[in-house]
Write a structure and sequence with these properties.
33% of the residues lie in helices and 30% in strands. The protein has five helices and nine strands. The strands form two sheets. It has a five-stranded antiparallel beta sheet with strand order 5-2-1-8-9, covered by helices on one side. The chain has a four-stranded antiparallel beta sheet with strand order 6-4-3-7, with helices on one face. Helix 1 (17-34) runs antiparallel to helix 5 and helix 3 runs antiparallel to helix 4 (100-113). The termini are far apart.
């Protein structure tokens, strides 16, 4: 049973500004045409979540320290978005190829943190279940989805993004706790 005193933390990869501009302009266009501005209101930046864990507030500093150590041996990688996908026509996202960079960083993060912290999000970020994605819109109804898909399909694919950093977030309320460059 889930302990409600635990906080959910997410570890996410980030993209360079040129790719962020494309994603953010798409998110804003979708919000404008659908009225669904959840991502903008919550100030959620473009990212790919590679892990989600539950921890007590008193364990936050340990989590941050472990993730910071993790980044010291990480190398920059490439994420190549090749399509638009959706989860039950409620979430619309950019779909990257699940390449060796993504598989390795997801697997290594879980190897490091899984023994210390409880998996979150029903284990959906565990290596064997993980489906990497960058959300463009979420919590949509059918009408919003159709309009959002039309806008998302305007993104020129494939779209490549170099990845050199990650962030640790507290999920609810959403707050970035630390952004860390690889190999720092």
């Amino acid at each position: 049973m889930f302990d409600s005193s635990l906080i959910t933390y997410a570890i996410s990869l980030h993209f360079p500004q040129n790719v962020n501009r494309i994603i953010i302009s798409t998110v804003k266009a979708i919000a404008e045409i659908t009225g669904n501005s959840f991502i903008i209101e919550k100030k959620i930046p473009p990212h790919i979540t590679i892990g989600a864990f539950h921890a007590a507030k008193k364990e936050e500093s340990i989590l941050l320290q472990l993730v910071e150590e993790f980044t010291t041996w990480q190398q920059a990688g490439i994420v190549k978005f090749t399509g638009i996908g959706n989860f039950n026509k409620k979430v619309l996202f950019l779909k990257p190829e699940k390449n060796s960079f993504l598989e390795k960083i997801n697997s290594e993060l879980h190897s490091l943190l899984q023994g210390n912290f409880e998996k979150a999000e029903n284990g959906l970020y565990l290596p064997e279940m993980w489906f990497p994605h960058t959300t463009l819109a979420t919590r949509m109804n059918q009408s919003q989805f159709s309009k959002a898909l039309e806008i998302a399909n305007r993104i020129t694919l494939p779209l490549e993004a170099g990845v050199t950093e990650l962030s640790v977030y507290q999920c609810s309320p959403f707050a970035e706790l630390k952004k860390i460059k690889f190999g720092h």
